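@channel anyone free to eyeball this complex?
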Amino acid sequence: MQDFVWLIPLLPLLSAIFLMVFSSKLPSTIVALFGTGSVGLSALLTCNLTWQFLQDPRLITVTLWTWIKVGELNANVGFHIDGLTIVMMMIITCVGFLIHLFSCEFMEDDTSYSRYFAYLNMFVSAMLVLVMSDNLLLLYLGWEGVGVCSYLLVGFWYQHSGNGHAARKAFIVTRIGDTAMMLGLLILFTELGTLDIQSIAASAQARWQTGDFMPTLACLLLLAGAAGKSAQFPLHTWLPDAMAGPTPVSALIHAATMVTAGVYLIARMHGLFTLSPQAMTVIAFIGVGTALMAAFSAAVQTDIKRILAYSTISQIGYMFLALGVGAWTAAVFHLMTHAFFKALLFLGSGAIIHCLHHEHDIFKMGGLWKRMPIAFVSFLIGSSALAALPFTSGFFSKDLILLSAYQLEEFGPLLWAGGLLGALVTALYSFRLVFVVFFGQIQTLPDKENGWRIGLPLSILCILSLVGGYFSLPLNNLFPMERDSHPDAWVEMVSIATPLLGVIVAYILFIRTPSRIPKSLISPQETKFSRILFSGWKLDEIYDRLFVSPYTRSTSVLSHEPVDKLYNAVVLINQKLNAWLSFSQSGRMRWYMVSIAIGFIVLLGIAITIPKGFSQW
Amino acid sequence: MLELALFYIAASVALFATVLAMTRTNAIHALIYLIVSLLAIAVIFFLIGAPFAAALEIVIYAGAIMVLFVFVIMMLNLGEEGDARERQLLQPHIWLGPAILSLVLLVELLYLISTVEGPASSGSVSPKDVGLALFGPYVIAVEIASMLLLSGLVGSYHLGRRFLDRGL
Amino acid sequence: MQELAVPLNHVLFVSTLLFTIGMLGLMIRRNIIFILMSLEVMLNASALAFIAAGAHWGQADGQVIFLLILSIAAAEVAVGLGLVLQIQKRFKTLDMDDANRMRG
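replying in thread with the prediction:
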């Protein structure tokens, strides 16, 4: 079985190439068969691999060929598969397969059906390369590969210029992080002489002391890359706009897999990050800060997909918090459960959008619970998990994170309190979504029924979101020893009670007394504070002022070639001089003769007036 | 004493003839004055002890070169209207400015030369000495002069042949 | 050394005067024949200066240079007169102010 590991990323890639080459000539059933089938086969192979791994948990390393060999640099195309990789691969292939299946129906009417599946397959392949790679260079290849696919899919409906703008924004903002990450890789290579992930951890611990400057710098650069990809403050502004892409794309790329690549990277490089407590603290604060900012922004959004986008940012913030406090397992655990329930929520919203003439505004929905029972159940379960209500999957993972945060010596209670506040707001906005969309007056009637290809993935994800919390991850011995998560009983009680409180508040606001809802929660333009929240804390505007407009202004200045003015002046002076001298070229010999005579007279005059100098010569 | 008198007479003749040559309107007249001037200078050469140079001055300058001028002027066949035109061009407002310039230059040169002292001649330099110098230390100069004359020959042949081919 | 020999500076004065007259002719005449004559006068004046200097030191060098000047004059007149013929043919004039096509 191990010998066929390389088939897992290869199958979607082959399918992608096939679909690209024969794009327009294929009937949609063949496209769907290839697009979904290839990922399905990968999922089956991954399940088989996982089964074997659970029976016999040992590392699998496969080196296919030497990719780049220059001087000391020796990058293989090789795979290193351990528990963390297995978890990621399961998420990518299984959730990916369900989303592909969903897409078959969701995208059925689209004219670019095969282009869509080609991009999606390519994405799955690149993401698998990212998580399976045994060295950072190949990981970076996958990292950029998913970035490209994300760009292509966000701008999938390129006919609207706004979508193209969103795609470019996503690409450029993540590129800032990617550049920092590249610098981090270069530092690691020049300092340690290798890019192999396992040897980096070993040699870093041999070479550096905890808290040294170099590992901190490398960690912060890698963190910038991770923050760009995972949409963390201050590079998170691209994710809400990335919702311009098709909804299943948002589910797969911008919720379940790609945006968690940053979490994966940090978890993968934990050997390096443990050497830098400063970087860990930065990660924790970025995580909790992002979680809070995004949660508040989510609470005032009216576009269903933007709510989910902000909640994704917020949940990844929790993962970063977990990473920052050293709760590696909790981070990966939350990554998995989040992949389940956020994919479920996105696909559920996709199902609603699909039936409601592509309506995105939640206040134009309402009363849908009877009309769309599957979507309702999906949203109910998904929101419960998102809000971390007891016994859903999100409950276990988020609880673990909060308790781990509380036990940190420095800042522990502070981080815990921040996370708790975030959890309260999370519960509030997720049930605001449920109550507004599914209860109250019916505003828009659904015009079609969803078929089994939408229903089946939703059902499976419902089950996963419910029971995902009971999975035990094969992460033993992978991460350093973590703290025993048994703090005081009251802390645990408060952690459990907070989301419930949020749900109750939401219930009171939106069901019991709909007339007394704060205006800011319905139309965010009402108050100044909610306007700031609605615009994502005005960060877009700030970045525009700080970076974009100085850049455009300087380019508009430079487009007039200010430096060339100097050289143009030289040319102008020469031209004037030439005109003047050519005037003296009259063509009259006598005039030339007179000039020579004058020159001669002047020279002799000089010779006479300085007789001493002249005689000395 | 006789030598000194001869020198001043020859110098006066040379200067006077040159001024007249420069101010004639008829080219042939001017040329005759120029030949007179050259002959006078040949006399000065002889007086200051350069008999070989004096002979060359007469033979080549006054003889060969001036005859070349005469031939060309005769080929051009300038008539009376040419004389009138030249006369018109010799008005004071034309020559006054250049004359002042020349005067300034003359004053400067004379001022520089006035410091020179001593006799002009310290015995005669024979043609033998000149020949020894020419083909001794100055042999390169002779080569260069021969090349110059060759190029003059080729150039004038080229220019004159086309003139003759097309006919005047 | 003779008592009443010709003073060197007087010979040079004559040479200078001749040179200046030649240059004046060059500046005021527009007929190319006269221009060439003026050039001959100037060359001759400088030749006189060389001869005088050579004679002053009793050396042959002055006369050697005179020979060089002579060959220059001969070559120059040969080419110059050839040009005169061409100019007369092309422009139907000997006035150098009219033949000013090479102005800048």
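from a first look: Residues 54 and 154 of chain B are 28 Å apart (CA to CA).
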